[in-house]
UniProtKB/TrEMBL annotation:
Record keywords: DNA-binding, Metal-binding, Nucleus, Transcription, Transcription regulation, Zinc
Alphabetized InterPro entries for the sequence: Stress_Response_Reg, XnlR_reg_dom, Zn2-C6_fun-type_DNA-bd_sf, Zn2Cys6_DnaBD
Domain Zn(2)-C6 fungal-type intervals: 10-39
Protein name: Zn(2)-C6 fungal-type domain-containing protein
PROSITE patterns to which the protein is assigned, alphabetical: ZN2_CY6_FUNGAL_1 (PS00463), ZN2_CY6_FUNGAL_2 (PS50048)
Organism listed in the record: Rhizodiscina lignyota
High-level lineage: Eukaryota, Fungi, Dikarya, Ascomycota, Pezizomycotina
GO cellular component, one term: nucleus
CDD domains xrefs: fungal_TF_MHR, GAL4
GO molecular function, one term: DNA-binding transcription factor activity, RNA polymerase II-specific
Top-rank lineage group of the source organism: Eukaryota
Annotated stretches, region: Disordered: 166-212, 641-692
């Protein structure tokens, strides 16, 4: 007699009636009685845990008890009153029980408010906290702090001196031509008084005549609504009113009010000369012609005012446009000095205080706008140069400008905005808030006195992970509060579309500044270091943000929203490309490196297309050309060295690297099986054929084995258009190092430490990080290392 086969699962109807089921679909009982045969109800059978799981839990428990005895010696874990005693701080932490640095005992983020720098996970920065002091051939000193991109370039130069050579000047950008060939006029003067004598009240005549009214009108419109769309310091109807008065008179009939307006007009014309609605003219003549013309207007503005004695709004507005001209013509160091003059003048005029003075609505709003733009530039340029900002938050009680467009602000009243219409000032205020977060990033991620380094040491410092998470949440909160009208997508006026993308770019730049010091954690050279997954997450986030920046600039270029004079986008793209190159050099044998390099080359091509229109893009392009010429040979040598080192390790060890007899192998999906996320080809709501944008799906997503961590992340579908992933909670898996000995995850953090000694060790699937969104303009929907 044949023994009846025991089925593993009964159908829902047989389970309900508690009768035998043959496990077929449908089963015999349901077929006879015409019942619907389903297997939907969850099984209530209790499964016993696997022995490996119990063993892992026991090891974790033992490790937790060991750590607890170190931190709280003599504590009785069986005491029923232990929780109450801990809440009352009845136990004191043992001095020296918790140490700083990567690989130290990690107590989680909750300890951060109580012990500054102690007990929390520390991430080591790849840049040094000393900055860089350079002396040029003329004997001029120039200092750049460690938040400057120069510190990152110096680190790359130290690691790869064969492909990134030491320049003769402080700037990392190759100068394609001498500055004397760019400027026929003398060099930019430092901000000093132009007055010959305090008693001499005469105003010198400008060396350059005004252009025709039509040309001037176009330049003014470009400067205000294009070049300074996020940095609005003027009331546009007032500017046009004064503009018409100037061009309706001959110079000999100018009034005192007209003469006071001339420096501002010349400064606006200088900035507008660098931007052009039609780039074909600049392509034909080159940016040198545009900069030379702009410099003539700049010099005229300087001669018409005493910059060292600025105590009226129009003069201060003129200095702001001079600063914007210097920024756009790649003179950041000089512009930093002008920012200092502007800020001191603003303080003398009391713009930092919310004073209920006798101001009409236009004057009151203009005072707010001018102050906050100067404050933004002080923080922003200081962060890029690695120099401190001047004014503390405690010294300011000025409120942000009203989010009302200029045409609704009159000398007598402020009219309400129409329902459903977004103001450009809303974008400016959002940018102000974002720059404040960048200031926080500089303060805590690039501290002057870094943790983990003795006094006088030039070594790298460490940053608390809790502070990184705090800043991530600040960025997320900023994004969530951003009005829908300022988020990419939908139909909007061109100026709103422009500020949408400028805000998105500024947001990505803030993210890159946050994560860039930790880029070295995604590296096969992190040998003999104990590193947790949060370090890898920060490094992978830097790669993701860098790729996003390149995608954003490429899309802006295709949509006609990117101009070469946007110095900020040029340098941000340049350092994003360098970050991707660093990743590829550190992981030469990974297929992912080729995909990352493809994005880096796309960014380089975008800069090349703007090189004729921008000195910044030209310098970046020449530097990158030298780098990319030597890159293939360096990558080939890196792959050969990696293969040779891997063979030597395999000859020494009888077991496969990263595994022991007890370990459970991690199976990485094949590249062909991995899901391929889509890259957006257009804005939301804008039609586009699939052929005009290279799809991101042509690149290969990151897999476990390629990047080399271990337990996988849980990424969301990349096709949802959102950057969404989560680090795993502690799985209790035992991770084995080179010697076969186990490392164990700590109880209070989602961390499983491993010794990162080979690029082929299994890394978490960082696909959702490396390909964060189907739309490159979409904001991430949650912090990148959560």
């Amino acid at each position: 007699m044949q023994k009846r086969r025991r089925v593993t699962r009964a159908c829902d109807e047989c389970r309900r009636k508690k009768i035998k089921c043959d496990g077929k679909q449908p089963c015999t009982h349901c077929t006879v009685y015409s019942y619907e045969c389903t297997y939907d109800q969850p099984s209530n059978r209790r499964r016993n845990a696997a022995p490996q799981y119990i063993e892992a839990l026991e090891k974790r428990l033992k490790r937790m008890e060991t750590i607890l005895n170190i931190v709280l010696p003599g504590v009785d874990v069986e005491d029923p009153n232990l929780e109450a005693a801990l809440q009352q701080n009845a136990f004191q932490l043992k001095p020296g029980a918790i140490t700083n640095g990567v690989g130290a005992t990690q107590m989680g983020d909750r300890t951060a408010p109580h012990v500054e720098g102690g007990g929390e996970s520390q991430l080591e920065s790849m840049v040094k906290s000393t900055g860089q002091l350079d002396l040029d051939e003329e004997g001029h000193w120039d200092f750049h702090g460690h938040s400057s991109g120069l510190s990152f370039v110096r680190r790359m130069r130290e690691q790869y001196p064969d492909i990134i050579t030491e320049p003769a000047h402080a700037s990392p950008f190759s100068k394609s031509r001498p500055m004397s060939q760019v400027f026929e006029s003398p060099k930019f003067d430092s901000p000093r008084s132009n007055a010959e004598s305090p008693m001499d009240g005469s105003s010198p005549s400008p060396p350059t005549d005004l252009p025709s009214k039509e040309v001037a009108k176009e330049l003014v419109d470009i400067a205000i609504n294009d070049a300074a769309s996020l940095l609005r310091v003027v009331h546009e109807p007032t500017i046009w009113k004064a503009f018409d008065k100037i061009f309706d008179k001959s110079p000999e009939n100018y009034t005192n009010d007209d003469n006071m307006f001339l420096p501002l007009l010349y400064a606006i014309l200088a900035l507008g000369s660098l931007f052009s609605k039609d780039g074909r003219e600049i392509d034909a003549k080159g940016y040198a012609t545009a900069i030379d013309q702009g410099f003539k207007y700049f010099k005229s503005s300087r001669l018409l005012m005493d910059i060292a004695d600025c105590r009226d709004l129009r003069s201060l507005q003129a200095i702001v446009f001079m600063i914007l001209f210097l920024q756009s013509s790649a003179k950041l160091s000089t512009c930093y000095s002008y920012i200092g003059v502007a800020l001191r003048s603003a303080l003398r005029m009391g713009l930092h205080r919310n004073i209920p003075g006798n101001f009409n609505p236009i004057e009151a709003e203009t005072r707010k706008r001018v102050f906050w733009v100067i404050r933004k530039m002080d923080t922003y340029v200081g962060a890029l140069l690695g120099l401190p900002h001047t004014l503390n938050d405690e010294d300011i009680d000025q409120v942000l400008p009203l989010e009302v467009d200029d045409e609704y602000i009159t000398e007598t009243e402020i009219l309400p905005m129409p329902e459903g219409q977004i103001s450009v000032m809303a974008a400016s205020n959002a940018h102000t808030t974002l720059v404040a977060i960048i200031g926080k990033i500089v303060k805590y991620i690039y501290p002057l006195k870094g943790a983990g380094a003795p006094n006088g040491s030039v070594k790298s410092y460490s940053v608390g992970y809790a502070k990184i998470r705090e800043i991530e949440l600040d960025l997320q909160e900023w994004m969530q509060k951003l009005p829908m009208g300022l988020r990419p997508g939908g139909d909007a006026p061109k100026i709103i579309i422009r500020v949408q993308q400028l805000l998105r770019m500024a947001y990505a730049h803030a993210q890159m500044m946050l994560y860039r010091p930790f880029l070295h954690y995604v590296s096969h050279t992190c040998k003999s270091k104990v590193v947790d997954k949060r370090s890898y997450a920060c490094a992978a986030a830097c790669v993701s943000v860098s790729r996003n920046i390149i995608h954003i600039t490429s899309e802006m270029k295709k949509r006609g929203l990117l101009c070469g004079a946007y110095w900020f986008q040029m340098y941000t793209s340049f350092f994003a490309i360098l970050s991707l190159v660093f990743f590829a050099l550190e992981n030469p044998e990974n297929q992912t490196s080729q995909d990352v390099l493809r994005d880096a080359k796309e960014g380089k091509e975008t800069l090349e297309q703007l090189a004729k229109r921008s000195m910044a893009a030209d310098r970046c392009t020449h530097t990158l050309n030298v780098l990319f010429e030597q890159l293939p040979d360096r990558l080939r040598r890196g792959r050969a060295e990696s293969i040779s080192a891997k063979k030597r390790r395999q000859e020494v060890s009888p077991h496969p690297l990263g595994h022991s007899e007890e370990s459970t192998p991690v199976v990485a999906p094949k590249l062909s099986e991995a899901p391929r996320p889509r890259r957006a080809s257009t804005f939301h709501g804008w039609g586009s054929s699939s052929g005009d944008v290279k799809p991101l799906s042509q690149t290969v997503p990151l897999t476990h084995a390629q990047l080399g961590l271990d337990s996988p992340l849980t990424p969301s579908s990349a096709s949802t258009g959102n950057l969404s992933f989560s680090l795993p909670t502690n799985t209790g898996n035992t991770i084995h190092g080179l010697n076969g000995g186990p490392f164990h995850g700590l109880p209070l953090s989602p961390t499983v430490v491993t010794s990162f000694t080979d690029a082929n060790l299994p890394l978490p699937d960082l696909t959702s990080m490396m390909f964060p969104s189907a739309d490159p303009f979409a904001y991430p929907n949650q912090p990148m290392t959560s």
